[in-house]
Amino acid sequence: xxxxxxxxxxWKMNLTLAQGExxxxxxxxxxxELGENQEAVLGIPFPYLTTVKDKLSGKQNIYIAAQxxxxxxxxxxxxxxxxxxxxSIGVDYxxxxxxxxxxxxxxxxxxxxxxxxxxxxxxxxPIFCCGEAxxxxxxxxxxxxxxxxxxxxxxxxxxxxxxxxxxxxxxxxAIGTGKTASSEQxxxxxxxxxxxxxxxxxxxxxxxxxxxxxxxxxxxxxKEIFGQPDVDGGLVGGASxxxxxxxAIINSLKK
Length: 255
Fold this sequence. Notes:
The chain is an alpha/beta fold.
């Protein structure tokens, strides 16, 4: 069976509740086809998760994601959100280690390993982000850099825990910089990521992992990017805030 093809929206810190509801109403009014091996995931700000969960009732193959969680189970961490809280409201996925979290909030590979463990313990699926900045890409060390992120955050997991796992590769150097990564560059890194897992866990586990592309996916380029053999969908930022764009991206997933 083909591994899951996923169009994941990351709303980041955008939209009021009313704007978010209007976006979803517009999105759901556009015909989208989600096959058996396809999913749409909506990465929603914490305050709206329960509202959006209710809106998804009865919809097939559409799930919600939190954009983060804390690395501790519970306790005196004012303002943080635990995995158990997310589980209790029916959240499906959690985006972990997004480049913005790593850069602005100093999230380390070891902290992300703790977050991954908690998500798996409570039955939530991580969307684990990795990727390199411009200086790493220009130095030509992107492969080893991304490999270190994966090893330090994920290589303690069992083959069973990594089967059907979700990775999102973000070419940070190509986001908002005016530089664009070609679909060939996306494929090259996705294939490298899969080979890293294959070397440690074998081909069966590596081939089950969905690797999403997180580098400025738009309706105009989604089909070409998703057409690459090791690209299994996208983690979409700005374009996910426009209903027509995100619907077209969903419809660009591999059948």
